[in-house]
């Protein structure tokens, strides 16, 4: 007499099992293009700012793994809007790529598209964002940068800096090395940290792109960070964290914890992305 009472439970169990199988199949489909071997972690803090102007995203396809970080210019209006548009445009264009051989051209195309879109949304109001983007494809690192956000490789306890900051200081250094100005004139210029190129700028020139991809070794860590990170954490502090045998996510969280612990009076938005080549 108790057998019929089991039927509803068996039906429910069969339904749940079917749902689990469908979910598993969906995950396999979603991850069918995933490239194994790249571990990703990120961390972010608003600092002492009223708004989070940093924006970032990552994506993986058959052509590789991309990470994009944009730091909206807080001194201008619509920093958050500009950084969001820039990152979204880069991710969107990367997802359209048919082949990894198109990666170098992708940076130029995405930068001009995002600059145009930002200017259209600003409607004459001043605004903009820095941007650093990297793509890891078949153990090679491609990158593009504009502004003062940076990317670097942490390899065997050493940092390999990748891009140049697009600030007046860089131009002053070139003029000093050329003998056009003195060292004091270079160091004492009050505008030395002013951006000279960024997205959302009507005079946008171009995005700095790697001349050739950088071969990565197993264990290399590629770090992207906004100025709120590298102006607050020393290289020694970064080295100590990145040398630990922990996941990229845990390392990124530790970096942010160090920043927040210092409680600097003018702490800027800070964002860090870490990609580890674990193949």
Automatic annotation (TrEMBL):
What InterPro entries does its record include?
A: PPM-type-like_dom_sf (IPR036457), PPM-type_phosphatase-like_dom (IPR001932)
TM annotation in the entry: 6-25
Q: Does the keyword Transmembrane apply?
A: yes
UniProt keyword list: Membrane, Transmembrane, Transmembrane helix
Per the database record, which ranges form the PPM-type phosphatase domain? 39-277
Q: What is this protein called?
A: Serine/threonine phosphatase stp
Encoding gene, per UniProt annotation = stp
